[in-house]
Design brief:
heterodimer; A: about 130 residues; alpha+beta; OB fold (Dihydrolipoamide Acetyltransferase, E2P); three-stranded antiparallel sheet; B: about 375 residues; Gyrase A, domain 2; Alpha-Beta Plaits; Elongation Factor Tu (Ef-tu), domain 3; six-stranded mixed sheet; about 20% helix; globular
């Protein structure tokens, strides 16, 4: 039912990560988007901010609700998708591409091994 | 607990609706278009709403007018037959049991549509306070309700009714046959747009809904509860449980127009006293500028930081809030002290730990163009 690309890693919080050079790009999954409905505001950190795995790095507001965005890994934010400020609908329309949120340069590479594979995430979503 | 289903549940599933729990009902929050597109469809074209979860009750008997007079804040009992009247049911304290529409069929028969989440409570209230003056017939399970709303709604329904409904003016109703289905057709709604609400037998609901879907004009869509909420908020229509409750009076909620204090009814004495004393708090509309990028939601505190730290700063509470889909920024309703209720007043609302500026505005956020 949900689109789960096979070249990404995933978290329990329905975020995806894609390796981009030394950094990892972060967004939310199609499943999360389906649950949230139309997204109206995405609040993101600034370039250079440090984020900690499991801690809030931003928030996402849909028409009906607001949710925390939790950092999937610890590290430094090296890029932010500024386009979401004016066009949060990119997250709805293209969660894995135009709807990306931040690039993190991980401080602890071991954390990357704890991310879910597409198969594991597919199981998680199937049970949800 | 198993969620209740309306007669249209199967169709909603087939059309890809996202279903959520709403007061014990499994209801579409949005279809595939999503809340924002659905909201705009109702403003620009027409939307179909399954609101069969709402409660429907008949009050009947030779003395039913006495019972209705006692229960309702607005002039319902004395209305002409064929008139629909918005009213509050008040407690003796003046607090609100529910807000609802009474449809006067005759001096001996009234049809009432009540909020889904309040149906059981309202029935108890009616049984306890009609003093045996009338029969109470709960037809909620046997009745489906479909709202057709938007600038193209009247033409759509009227065509399916063979042109019999053109004479119905705002807040009137008539028995009609729409797409072959016997209905009570009322020129009422909860979106700020023109349109009809059609009550029919549960067994006919699929036929009526399908006929409406098949005849939708360009831009018309089925609409979920998500857009129903953003539409009613933009038109500043209160929602029971958010903006109205047992602890706030209709005068505080700005519904004085639906309270006729020259009559005797449950709560009249308390409301007259409150009016004489003057209000200490009031429900106001507020706007948050688009570039602030924040939404103040139900339960967020309105604060005045000059009063101190923590709880000491709280002067009011947001009761409804969301994006202003057609008016931009974010909008909402909040109870605030009367001194902060004047249009133009700057409010501060604590949104998830951040102080956000908001401005008190009067009237509807969105006003539809008059035809």
């Amino acid at each position: 039912m949900s689109d789960i690309p096979s070249d990404l890693r995933y978290t329990n919080d329905h975020e995806w990560l894609r390796t981009a050079g030394t950094a990892w790009r972060v967004g939310i999954t199609q499943f999360a988007v389906n649950q949230l409905g139309d997204i109206t505001i995405v609040e993101l950190p600034k370039v250079g901010d440090l984020v900690t795995k499991g801690q809030q790095f931003g928030s996402i507001e849909s028409v009906k609700s607001v949710s925390d965005l939790l950092a999937p890994v610890s590290g430094r934010v090296i890029a932010v998708n500024e386009a979401l400020k004016d066009s949060p609908e990119h997250v709805n329309e293209s969660p894995y591409d135009a709807g990306w949120m931040i690039d993190i340069e991980p401080s602890d590479k071991a954390e990357l091994d704890e991310l879910m594979t597409p198969a594991a995430y597919t199981t998680l979503v199937a049970d949800a | 607990m198993e969620r209740k289903r309306t007669p249209l549940w199967e169709l909603h599933k087939q059309h890809g609706a996202r279903l959520i729990d709403f007061g014990g009902w499994d209801m579409p929050v949005a279809y595939t278009a999503g809340t924002i597109k659905e909201h705009k469809a109702v403003r620009d074209s027409v939307g179909l709403f399954d609101v069969s979860h709402m409660g429907e009750v008949y009050l009947r008997g030779p003395r039913v007018r006495e019972a209705v007079e006692l229960l309702t804040s607005n002039a319902v009992a004395s209305a002409p037959a064929g008139k629909a009247v918005y009213t509050l049911l008040c407690r003796p304290s003046g607090g609100v049991v529910d807000d609802c529409i009474f449809y006067k069929r005759s001096d001996e028969e009234f049809f009432v549509i009540v909020n889904a989440s309040n149906t059981a409570k309202d029935l108890d209230w009616l049984r306890d306070h009609t003093r045996g003056l009338c029969d109470i017939d709960d037809v909620s399970d046997a009745t489906a309700l479909i709202a057709v709303q938007g600038p193209k709604a009247v033409a759509l329904v009227d065509r399916l009714a063979g042109g019999t409904l053109t004479s119905l003016t705002s807040f009137t109703f008539a028995d009609a046959v729409v797409a072959g289905v016997p209905c009570v057709a009322a020129r009422t709604g909860y979106t700020g747009e023109d349109g009809f609400e059609l009550a029919c037998a549960s067994g006919d609901a699929v036929r009526l809904w399908s006929a409406l879907v098949d005849n939708l004009p360009d831009g018309g869509l089925p609409i979920g509860l998500g857009a129903r909420d953003t539409l009613r908020l933009e038109s500043r229509l209160p929602l029971y449980g958010n903006d109205l409750d047992d602890d706030h009076t209709p005068l505080e909620a700005g519904l004085g127009w639906a309270v006729k204090l020259d009559r005797e009814f449950l709560g009249a004495q308390a409301l007259r006293e409150q009016k004489q004393r003057g209000l200490s708090r009031q429900l106001v509309g507020f706007k948050i500028a688009d570039d602030t990028r924040a939404i103040a939601r139900h339960g967020y505190p309105v604060v005045d930081r000059s009063l101190g730290a923590g709880e000491a700063a709280v002067i009011g509470t947001v009761t409804s809030g969301g994006p202003g889909v057609c008016v931009g920024g974010a909008i909402g309703l909040a109870y605030v002290p009367i001194a902060s209720a004047k249009p133009g007043t700057q409010l501060t609302i604590e949104c998830r730990g951040k102080d956000i500026p908001a401005t008190v505005v009067s009237g509807k956020f969105y006003k539809r163009a008059q035809p």
